[in-house]
Recover the amino acids of this structure.
């Protein structure tokens, strides 16, 4: 018996010896791959490796660094569980991690902060955007300083490199055409230290003059304009050549654009928290968008949502199919999007509406990028078709004409502006679990009351782009919007503005305090824009410096010019800064801090970074508009 065991032991030992050549206890067909397959590490940095076995066999327990089991201090050590620790000092030799099976090794480079391969700056498809590429170790974030000289002045936000190290590319935007810039990458290492690349230079391309919107700007000499850039959604010009999704500095210089190609415009365009832009790609001279796009600053498309995608998603879930996206799209904190679309029904038996009339209404769709539609809402389900303040045009009743939707973080509901109802409404959304009921209607014949001296002239008429300007968005809160003033009622007899013997129509920018409990509203602040009367479009914002900015997009007294104004936030609302857009209607024109999340670019920073030392003219701009309504 003992003799048999002895012989068996010898045989087993020989088999294992042979097996080591192909993997002891494994078959010749078994495959093992290492993850990650390559890495860039700092000295003493650790990284977990995993051996992935394609059979049910046990994982290997012996790891090698450059052929030495467990490694060494010169090349780094590794545990039986695959935890690698880089050597304490940077080394230039190539390091390989492997297991006893002789599979393809993982390759490691030790990053030397004192001697590393510098980055490379190259052009992109956008003449005003550079791509700065550099290799960085695991856990590193890279940002780029840039400007007209080595003082730089402007910075991008940080871009995280690959988890295990490797090439990272930072898009550098906010550049003027035909200008040479200095750039320097800054590596924020995982150990808290920073490493600077050598200075690089990059010269932007030229933009054909026919493509550049006609934009001029000037400061008034009152105060200092709030920091940032102007981001525009411009309606295409008659020629259709000029870019329509653009950003300018406060001097009116083009510093970014997105070329949608012939026959398309951005309606609208919105910056995203990840540094990308979100837009509704829309047919030229049409309000009918057919695609939602997420793009990076170079114009590369990262995500698309088409009409076909949405209609396929809601088929069988809703009773409707949408005809188009239009006017707005809302990114939510949870990563979803609220899509605004329209569709039509044929009216029969509706008081005041001829049978057979086609009525266009609006729908909201909560779109989860992973699952598609998770909540839907329709005006036809919640509003009375008989209410149509703007009547019928060309046989089609543009019944609601929604133009803006915002999120109310205090109660997780949605607030929707419907121009052709003269209403702003709050919808029971509750992050996709709400009933969709209308909680209140703000505007003439709605649920709120105004003090007697304010109604009816102070109600909203054909309004655009509401924003909440108080810390809370429910209970008692403040809301601002651009009040276009279409068919504004001027007295208790509901006389329409512009009627014989009645004041002309005008636009205004009010801030209302709303009390949701008592359903009362009062005007806290207002800039009456007399004599300006913008019959469409526009927006209004509270700026970080306390000023207000608004877009007077389509003033009938100044045809073919859209005007962006910044005014003081006090009762005098003096003009601080003004920008004029000629030949293209500015559907929206609004201030953004910069092209990068977390970065704020002042007018002086932008001017110096572009090679100038002033912020433009300081001649006083005359402002003969009305004052504060108490």
């Amino acid at each position: 018996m003992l003799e048999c065991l002895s012989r068996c032991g010898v045989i087993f030992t020989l088999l294992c010896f042979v097996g080591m050549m192909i993997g002891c206890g494994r078959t010749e067909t078994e495959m093992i791959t290492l993850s990650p397959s390559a890495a860039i590490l700092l000295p003493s940095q650790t990284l977990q490796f995993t051996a992935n076995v394609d059979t049910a066999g046990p994982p290997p327990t012996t790891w090698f660094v450059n052929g030495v089991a467990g490694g060494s201090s010169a090349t780094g050590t590794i545990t039986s569980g695959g935890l690698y620790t880089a050597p304490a000092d940077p080394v230039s030799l190539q390091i390989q991690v492997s297991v006893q099976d002789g599979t393809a090794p993982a390759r490691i480079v030790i990053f030397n902060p004192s001697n590393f391969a510098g980055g490379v700056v190259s052009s992109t498809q956008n003449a005003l955007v550079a791509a700065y590429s550099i290799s960085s170790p695991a856990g590193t974030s890279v940002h780029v300083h840039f400007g007209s000289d080595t003082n730089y002045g402007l910075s991008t936000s940080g871009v995280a490199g690959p988890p295990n190290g490797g090439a990272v590319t930072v898009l550098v935007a906010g550049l003027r055409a035909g200008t040479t810039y200095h750039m320097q990458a800054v590596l924020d290492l995982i150990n808290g230290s920073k490493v600077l690349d050598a200075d690089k230079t990059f010269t932007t391309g030229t933009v054909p003059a026919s493509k550049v919107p006609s934009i001029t700007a000037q400061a008034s000499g009152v105060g200092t304009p709030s920091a940032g850039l102007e981001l525009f959604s411009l309606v295409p010009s008659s020629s259709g050549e000029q870019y329509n999704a653009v950003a300018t500095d406060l001097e009116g210089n083009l510093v970014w654009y997105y070329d949608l190609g012939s026959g398309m415009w951005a309606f609208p365009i919105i910056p995203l928290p990840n540094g990308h832009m979100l837009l509704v790609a829309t047919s030229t001279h049409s309000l009918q968008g057919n695609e939602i796009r997420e793009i990076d600053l170079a114009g590369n498309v990262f995500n698309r949502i088409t009409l076909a995608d949405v209609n396929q998603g809601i088929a069988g879930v809703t009773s409707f199919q949408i005809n188009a996206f239009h006017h707005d799209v809302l990114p939510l904190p949870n990563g979803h999007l609220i899509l605004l679309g329209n569709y039509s029904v044929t009216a029969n038996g509706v008081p005041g509406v001829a049978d057979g009339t086609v009525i266009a209404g609006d729908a909201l769709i909560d779109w989860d990028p992973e699952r598609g539609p998770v909540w839907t809402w329709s005006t036809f389900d919640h509003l009375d078709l008989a209410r149509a303040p703007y009547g019928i045009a060309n046989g089609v009743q543009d019944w609601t004409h929604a133009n803006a939707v915002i999120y109310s973080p205090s109660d997780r509901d949605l607030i929707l502006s419907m121009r052709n109802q003269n209403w702003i409404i709050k919808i029971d959304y509750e992050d996709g679990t709400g009933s969709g009921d209308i909680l209140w209607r703000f505007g003439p014949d709605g649920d709120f009351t105004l003090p007697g001296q304010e109604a009816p002239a102070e109600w909203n008429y054909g309004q655009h782009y509401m924003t909440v300007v108080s810390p809370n968005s429910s209970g008692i809160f403040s809301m601002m919007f651009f009040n276009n003033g279409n068919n504004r009622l001027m007295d208790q007899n509901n006389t329409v503005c512009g009627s014989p013997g009645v004041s002309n129509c005008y636009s205004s920018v009010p801030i209302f305090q709303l009390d949701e409990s008592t359903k009362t509203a009062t005007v806290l602040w207002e800039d009456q824009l007399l004599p300006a009367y913008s019959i469409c479009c526009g927006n209004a914002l509270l700026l970080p410096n306390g000023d207000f900015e608004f877009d007077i997009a389509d003033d009938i007294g100044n045809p073919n010019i859209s005007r962006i104004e910044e005014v003081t936030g006090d009762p005098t609302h003096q003009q601080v800064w003004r920008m004029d857009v000629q030949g293209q209607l500015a559907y929206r024109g609004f201030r953004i801090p910069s092209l990068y999340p977390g970065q704020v670019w002042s007018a002086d920073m932008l001017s110096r970074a572009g090679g100038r030392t002033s912020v433009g003219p300081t001649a006083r701009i005359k402002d003969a508009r009305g004052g504060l309504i108490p």
User: Anything to note?
Assistant: DSSP finds four helices and 46 strands in the chain. The CA atoms of residues 457 and 490 lie 5 Å apart.
